[in-house]
Recover the amino acids of this structure.
């Protein structure tokens, strides 16, 4: 990629929008999963009593729905990112490519 | 192509011969071994036949270097998602996590969640950029704008170290498992695995490796789903009944329903979390899969599918573990108080409780198929590090594609042979540390260099090389001084480093090293490294200039 092409791409509003939106989405979602996971670990470490709460019947403790919820949450986050990227980012990328190629 | 077919069949016969011989032998033996499991063997032979056919089919389509390393870049997102999930759902993880749930209950789920949460991070921060920047190996990305030789050597060394350690764990596990399931001798089992994977990889390259992985992932997911549904059926689809039955089997001990102090020490817990999360993002055989899809869009879709399959699988593993506690009753499954073959056999015994000999045979064959598939992926990743990173980019920079592919095939044979030798050599060793070491190296050497090269514009060659080697050596040293090697294996008393996974410290060392030796780097090369960032960044964002897929 030569310098002229680099400058051209950098000046495109679509490129600036793409970088800005994707960066903010990627970091927001990453922080979300990190907070959820390490929050869970911290809760286990500092308040193990909480996990002895029985939520259904006599044997289903609260840890089970929480654990499954984290797995489902991780999956939904990836789904959200892919949806957003397929809808918005690919369109912006296509426009950028059209401008310079 | 007839000669190819003949060679493949001779490989298959060579691999299966000891099995038949030993199977015949065990019938006459004094019965100290487990009886030969014919349903398992016939299902296993059917699986091997299918994979050999796939290898034959793939071999005809594997011509260029791109075909060999990256299946021509023509794998779809769904296929790649299954293959990634397949790489991740190794026999160690299927049997290990169900075994851990069987032993410790809830703590097994905490461990499984740690294995899963790295995947969203890989998607958000890495997958698309990897696809846009890379060609065949993650080293292509890590070395993109730096001086090639030192960074490639570092990353290739990190890759090969991780691959070899992981191979040792898989091969020893494989030998033990096959001995137990099929009544085959350990050494023969290891040799058979070695020969089969050399055949898959040298002839069929990434295309065969990927399809073997996909088929195995589908078999494993269906088998695990069947076991879990059967467990829930017997429990009237009530988790309360499942947990109640399990607690009753443990003489009313409720503790399996709660965390048993697995994370009582927060530093240990966080360090483990970092090793699992960042280690996953530094495993060469997993990262390599991002180059088999045609573009960034398919790369991100593959992580979405992979996360779904892996998450689903862990939930199944959890139900299976509790099902094993609840349903494995009766003396024939136990030797004294313990399960025959150890806790890791919980899922295998449960399949016999649920579906009798034929289903036991099916699950055993799937477990074996899992080992074959994971070992071939590892072997291909190791061979690529040797042929693409070391040979074609350091030793012989003018190598033609034919020469490079040829070296890759030789390297496959060497790594397959090493896998056999190490598998037999480590047979009776305590290998618990090798997985910790593999993940810690992947997290502390491969991952920091890779992620910083994509995100930090002021990184320089010097920073990458010194930081990377610091991460790698500190990982090795701290694992050696840790509880598994220092205390259990060397018997030197209390561990100097009290953490099984010291990643919290070694990852920090690597990042600080990269940062410090980059900002203090005033060389001409450093200026060039920084200058290259802009072009790299634009390509990583837009995919302009990225590798396409081949047209056939």
């Amino acid at each position: 990629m030569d310098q002229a092409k680099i400058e051209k791409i950098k000046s495109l509003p679509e490129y600036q929008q793409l970088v800005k939106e994707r960066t903010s989405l990627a970091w927001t979602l990453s922080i979300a999963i990190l907070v959820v996971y390490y929050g869970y670990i911290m809760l286990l470490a500092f308040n193990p009593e909480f996990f002895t709460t029985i939520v259904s019947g006599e044997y289903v403790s609260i840890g089970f729905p929480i654990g499954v919820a984290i797995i489902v949450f991780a999956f939904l986050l990836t789904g959200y990112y892919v949806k957003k990227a397929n809808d918005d980012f690919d369109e912006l990328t296509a426009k950028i490519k059209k401008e310079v190629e | 192509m007839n000669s190819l077919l003949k060679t493949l069949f001779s490989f298959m016969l060579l691999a299966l011969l000891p099995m038949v011989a030993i199977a015949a032998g065990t019938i006459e033996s004094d019965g100290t071994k487990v009886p030969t499991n014919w349903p398992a063997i016939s299902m296993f032979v059917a699986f091997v036949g299918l994979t050999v056919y796939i290898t034959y089919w793939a071999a005809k389509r594997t011509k260029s270097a791109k075909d060999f390393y990256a299946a021509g870049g023509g794998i779809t997102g769904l296929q790649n998602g299954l293959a990634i999930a397949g790489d991740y759902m190794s026999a160690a993880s299927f049997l290990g996590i169900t075994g851990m749930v069987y032993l410790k209950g809830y703590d097994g789920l905490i461990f499984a969640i740690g294995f899963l949460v790295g995947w969203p991070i890989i998607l958000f921060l890495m997958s698309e950029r990897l696809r846009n920047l890379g060609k065949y190996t993650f080293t292509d990305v890590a070395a993109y704008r730096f001086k090639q030789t030192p960074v490639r050597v570092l990353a290739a060394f990190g890759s090969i170290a991780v691959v070899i350690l992981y191979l040792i764990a898989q091969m020893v596990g494989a030998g033990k498992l096959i001995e137990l399931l099929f009544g085959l001798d350990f050494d023969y089992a290891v040799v058979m695995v070695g020969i089969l994977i050399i055949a898959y990889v040298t002839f069929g390259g990434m295309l065969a490796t990927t399809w073997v992985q996909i088929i195995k992932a589908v078999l494993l997911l269906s088998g695990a789903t069947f076991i879990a549904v059967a467990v829930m059926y017997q429990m009237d689809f009530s988790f309360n009944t499942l947990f109640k039955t399990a607690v009753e089997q443990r003489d009313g001990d409720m503790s399996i329903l709660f965390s048993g102090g697995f994370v009582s020490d927060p530093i240990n817990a966080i360090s483990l979390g970092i090793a699992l999360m960042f280690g996953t993002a530094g495993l060469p055989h997993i990262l390599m899969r991002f180059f088999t899809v045609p573009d960034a869009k398919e790369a991100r879709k593959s992580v979405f599918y992979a996360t779904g399959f892996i998450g689903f699988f862990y939930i199944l593993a959890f139900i299976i573990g509790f099902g094993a506690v609840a349903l494995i009753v009766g003396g024939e499954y136990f030797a004294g108080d313990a399960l025959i073959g150890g806790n890791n056999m919980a899922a295998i015994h449960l399949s016999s409780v649920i579906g009798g000999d034929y289903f036991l045979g099916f699950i055993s064959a799937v477990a074996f198929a899992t080992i074959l598939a994971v070992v071939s992926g590892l072997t291909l990743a190791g061979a690529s590090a040797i042929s693409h990173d070391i040979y074609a980019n350091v030793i012989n920079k003018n190598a033609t594609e034919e020469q490079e592919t040829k070296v890759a095939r030789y390297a496959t044979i060497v790594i397959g042979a090493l896998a056999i030798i190490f598998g037999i050599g480590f047979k009776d060793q305590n290998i618990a540390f090798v997985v910790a070491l593999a993940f810690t190296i992947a997290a502390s050497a491969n991952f920091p260099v890779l992620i910083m090269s994509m995100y930090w514009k002021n990184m320089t060659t010097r920073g990458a090389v010194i930081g990377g080697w610091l991460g790698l050596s500190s990982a090795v040293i701290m694992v050696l001084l840790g509880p598994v090697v220092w205390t259990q294996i060397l018997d030197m008393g209390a561990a100097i480093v009290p953490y099984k996974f010291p990643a919290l410290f070694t990852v920090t060392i690597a990042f600080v090293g990269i940062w410090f030796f980059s900002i203090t780097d005033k060389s001409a090369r450093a200026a060039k490294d920084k200058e290259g960032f802009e072009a790299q960044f634009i390509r990583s964002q837009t995919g302009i200039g990225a590798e396409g897929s081949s047209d056939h």
Remarks:
- Residues 2-542 of chain B form a domain with the Sodium/glucose cotransporter fold (CATH 1.20.1730.10).
- The mean pLDDT of chain B is 88.
